[in-house]
Amino acid sequence: MNARRPAEGAETPRSTYREALREGLREALRGDERVFLMGEDVGRYGGCFGVSLGLLEEFGPDRIRDTPLSESAFVGAGIGAALGGLRPVVEIMTVNFSLLALDQVLNNAATLLHMSGGQLNVPVVIRMTTGAGRQLGAQHSHSLEGWYAHIPGIRVLTPATVDDARHMLAAALDDPDPVVLFEHGSLYNEEGALDTAIRSVSLDSAAVRRAGTDVSVITYGGSLPKALAAAEELAGDGIDAEVVDLRSLRPLDDATVTESVARTHRAVIVDEGWRSGSISGEISARITEQSFYDLDAPVQRVCSQEVPIPYARQLEEAALPQPASIVAAVRQAVA
Amino acid sequence: MLLIRRFEERCVELYSAAKIRGFVHLYIGEEAVAVGVGQSLREEDAVVSTYREHGHALARGVPTQAVMAEMFGKATGCSRGRGGSMHLFDAGRRFYGGNAIVAGGLPLAAGLALADRMRGTERVTCCFFGDGAYAEGEFHETANLAALWQLPLLLVCENNLYAMGTSLAREHAQTNLAMRAASYGMPAWTVDGMDVLAVEAAARRAAESVRAGGGPHFLEARTYRFRAHSMYDPDRYRNKDEIAQWKTRDPLDGLEGILRTAGAVDDGVIKRLEEDVTTEIDTAVRAAEAAPYEPVTDLLRFVTSTPGSA
Amino acid sequence: MGEFTMPSLGADMDEGTLVEWLVAEGGEVARGDVVAVVETAKSTIEVECFESGTITELLVEPGTTVPVGTPLAVIGPTASRGRAPSAAPAPVLTGPALTTPLVRHQAAEEGVDLQAVHGSGMGGRITREDVSRAAHPAPARITASPLARRLAESLGVDLASVKGTGSRGAIKADDVRAAAGAAGEGPAPAAPAERAAPAGPPPPPAGTRAAPPPGDRLAIARLMTRAKREIPHYYLSTVIDLASALEWMRTENGARQVADRLVPAALLLKAVALAAREVPELNGHWSDDRFVPATGVRLGTAVSLRGGGLVAPALADADRMPLPELMATLKDLVARARHGRLRASETADPTLTVTNLGDQGVETVFGVIYPPQVAMVGLGRVTDRPVAVDGMLAVHPTVTATLSADHRASDGADGSRFLTALDRLLQHPEDL
């Protein structure tokens, strides 16, 4: 994907991540009348983070459906509506709030197909904001996508680029099984060139966002821009870092990671989740399992400090992976 | 009702013989609710149930053989052996299961009703749950959401007076469940859950009102389970007199009395019904015994629709 | 001084009834001994104590129910009127080693003398691990990345010779590449640089100083073919009674630290070296159509490698080296040979080679002489055989020693003298 350049003569309009998500929603709503959006303040308010701004006017209150603050009920209703033949897109304000609906995600969405012996598909898409970096304190800032990635039966996506923000939703709606899509709060205002040559994206593969030969920096979501910034800084010192964007935390694309590590022989994993019991731990374990004899240095991890994310700026910044800490970890790996 | 009663009595026997394992929650004593409500629903309607759902499944028409095979964990079970007693499913009959998270089925039922409403159908989604679920947030969230959106949802609370071992008065500050449901802005009333004809009449009235666009309705069926919460529990939380008193109101005896009085059945008919039911259950047990298990090589089937994608 | 208390035999056990004492006051107990029977709500269980000593007092009568943790008995230090442990000699050589038949079998297979093994199991029992450790002392661990290890193997680089530049001195892939590059340019840092003897004219003695590197079958083939083609071998054999040698060794080992204990192979090698000094016709090289006797004994010891192949590192001055030193040197050489970490000098110019196939289970070895040496001593398995002692039949440990010798350099009489000397030397192990 990274290698794909816009086709000759194709437009490359600028878009923010937020606008790209909205375009994805608009396209889905236009293309399939079974699709509808529901969640807290998705309608009149325009979405807590402004993603669905303007959609109510275009599609009406039936399909852009404001819900009460009842995460369990409206997520469960999304699952039920999917069973009933619709293609619901359920928005949860933040991953912290999604814990109120975790019962429905785990015990119903992820489980029904298997528990019913293959009878009941649940084609629901659940979107939510994740991550820190905006001084929102400990109850709006955590990165719990790794928890969701623990659950068999759901797909976990982490779009990090405007192209993925634009196109992942359509692919997610095509999936007959539940998909949970994490939008990192710090990405909404990120602007990038939208590749109009891309019509759809695969959900199964990770992407090499920057090719390099010395070390594989493996990351996803809101940490991707930080990893790329770190790679640029390292390039100045002659360290050529490859940056892999996982894109999907479940399933994990082992092949892309394995191939990258086979080229670079060193891996640094950047994950905004806490280190203990994290997706970074899972990735590290898989590298050891699958790429052991390619490794020329111990795998390094850059994770959030194990603390509830604090409010004050300097504390919050210190708690999160930053380009400087990624640079330091890479230096350690190539030392 | 007779089929449900005899089916579960056979389950007790099979459980004791270790043919059936896991948690098995018996419905004995509550059959009038499943049957009465079941009679009020149409084929195109949907049913969402609890973990005490053998009766709901059988009343919905899920084949006895498929339910029994599921109890045995066989490949011919209605959930291919992956569900067991608490997770019976039949998508074709719109029986959306056996949900073993207390109140977990309620939001799901609201979603099914929402889909029907958005698609303009005249279908009703019926959700069974107990007095225990009434204390869960998911009940109240769902009641509010359904009333707010005027969803075609029939909420049937099977109030058997005990949430596992905790009596109604020990778990609810206000035990008038129908009154509290009405506060969400939906019609709500209480019916004698031991009287199948009364249940049917009340459920029919509610279901047709829901179907006609009247929004969600709440029906509380006062009932009682004659046996323990799960297969065997010490039943220390109920006194024997109370159980004996409720048994005098056995819904099967009640119906039989009415039918005999009306001259609709006599000893011969009852005997024939018993024989038919016994034959049906015998056949189901034999079929379940003979049925194959799902191969372990298929363990990971149905985790996702596309193998290996999650 | 300690207490024996009512144990908790389950998370749900609050109290227990003492049913029976299995010890009496004044009795000695060891940690792990069953001392009482206790009844719980669920069952009757024999319980053990966790201290050693003497039961000085029983505090609770049988039939009494007490809460978990209640002291039941007092255990004092072991009474001093009993054995005085400080005065008693260490019970090393008394009786057979404490172990199982399986471990005995393993020890026999691995050529390990159980008397010399320290038991780490219960009550000093010798375990399989103990035998394995005695047979294969662990080499020092090299810190290297997985990629570096893989690369070293494919480039034929000896990691022991590579200096690591990674954190904590770890060897990285680049270090291996650098070492491989250096090996190609400069003097060989490691033994494997010594490759197969070239075909064509026989190489000078130095050409055979190193045994072929592991896996280099072709080199072995060439060397052995040449040996059989050029050297007129003659063979002699004798069975040597090792009873006194091994008995002496055991006594000797009793006074030694575990790590310094002797093994039979060391005695045999020393005896061979001394015999070689006595019969110089067998110790030297055949060069330019004549025999050149060596000035000292550099005893080659053939070591078969686990991955296949042979090396024969040399024990310099084996005839002069005291036994303990010879033992230590031998251990070190074998371990390093098996890990491909011999120094070039250590494989250079043996004057006589010993091949000991005893650990492979055979009784007799007729070896092929490594040119340009003129003899090869073969040693088989040390095995019990019936022997006549003073007109009586006895069963003694024996070994079959063979001599393959070059008829150009020596005659049968020389060879016989050698084997006779070897036998005699082994009957007087204290002089070795």
Round the Cα radius of gyration of chain B to an integer and report it: 19 Å
Distance between the termini of chain B: 42 Å
Shape of chain B: globular
Q: Could you state the order of secondary-structure elements of chain C as H and E?
A: EEEEEEEEHHHHHEHHEEEEEHEEEEH
Largest sheet of chain B: 6 strands, parallel
Q: What is the CATH superfamily label of chain B?
A: Thiamin diphosphate (ThDP)-binding fold, Pyr/PP domains
- The tally of strands of chain B reads 8
What is the percent of helical residues of chain C?
25-40%
Quick one: overall form of chain C?
elongated
The number of E-state strands of chain C comes to 18
Outline the low-pLDDT stretches of chain C.
81-95, 185-215
Span between termini of chain C:
51 Å
Count of structural domains of chain C: 3
Write the H/E string of chain B, N to C.
HHEHHEHEHEEEHHEHEHHH
Mean pLDDT figure of chain C = 79
Mean pLDDT of chain B: 95
Secondary structure elements and pairings:
The complex is a heterotrimer of chains A (335), B (310) and C (432).
Chain A: E1 14-16, H1 17-31, E2 35-39, H2 55-63, E3 64-66, H3 71-83, E4 87-94, H4 95-98, H5 102-109, H6 112-115, E5 125-130, H7 145-149, E6 155-157, H8 162-174, E7 179-184, E8 191-193, E9 207-210, E10 215-219, H9 224-236, E11 241-245, E12 248-250, H10 254-264, E13 267-274, H11 279-291, E14 300-304, H12 313-319, H13 323-334
Chain B: H1 2-16, H2 31-40, E1 46-49, H3 54-60, H4 64-71, E2 95-98, H5 105-119, E3 125-130, H6 137-148, E4 153-159, E5 162-163, E6 166-167, H7 168-171, H8 177-182, E7 188-192, H9 196-214, E8 217-222, H10 240-247, H11 251-261, H12 267-290
Parallel strand pairs in B: 1-2, 1-3, 3-4, 4-8, 7-8
Antiparallel strand pairs in B: 5-6
Chain C: E1 2-5, E2 15-21, E3 28-29, E4 34-39, E5 44-48, E6 53-58, E7 65-67, E8 71-76, H1 101-110, H2 128-135, H3 146-155, H4 173-185, H5 217-230, E9 233-241, H6 243-254, H7 264-278, E10 284-287, E11 290-293, E12 299-304, E13 310-311, E14 314-315, H8 323-338, E15 352-356, E16 375-379, E17 383-389, E18 392-406, H9 412-427
Give a written overview of the molecule.
The complex is a heterotrimer of chains A (335), B (310) and C (432). Chain A folds into 2 domains: 14-193, Thiamin diphosphate (ThDP)-binding fold, Pyr/PP domains (Rossmann fold), CATH 3.40.50.970; 207-334, Rossmann fold (3-Layer(aba) Sandwich), CATH 3.40.50. Helices cover 38% and strands 20% of the residues of chain A. Chain A contains 13 helices and 14 strands. Chain A has helices spanning 17-31, 55-63, 71-83, 95-98, 102-109, 112-115, 145-149, 162-174, 224-236, 254-264, 279-291, 313-319, 323-334, and strands spanning 14-16, 35-39, 64-66, 87-94, 125-130, 155-157, 179-184, 191-193, 207-210, 215-219, 241-245, 248-250, 267-274, 300-304. Chain A has a 7-stranded mixed sheet, sandwiched between helices. A 5-stranded mixed sheet of chain A has the order 9-11-10-13-14, sandwiched between helices. Chain A has a two-stranded antiparallel sheet with strand order 1-8. In chain A, strand 13, helix 11 (279-291) and strand 14 form a beta-alpha-beta unit. In chain A, helix 1 runs parallel beside helix 8, helix 3 runs parallel beside helix 5 and helix 9 packs across helix 13. Chain B starts with a helix and ends in a 20-residue tail after the last helix. Chain B has a single domain (2-298), classed as Rossmann fold. In chain B, a hairpin with a 2-residue loop joins strand 5 (162-163) and strand 6. Chain B is 45% helix and 12% strand. By secondary structure, chain C is an alpha+beta fold. In chain C, the strands form 4 sheets. In chain C, strands 9, 12, 13, 14, 15, 16, 17 and 18 form an 8-stranded mixed sheet that branches. A 4-stranded antiparallel sheet of chain C has the order 1-8-6-3, with no helix packed on it. A 4-stranded antiparallel sheet of chain C has the order 5-4-2-7, with no helix packed on it. Chain C is elongated. The chains are: A alpha/beta (335), B alpha/beta (310), C alpha+beta (432).
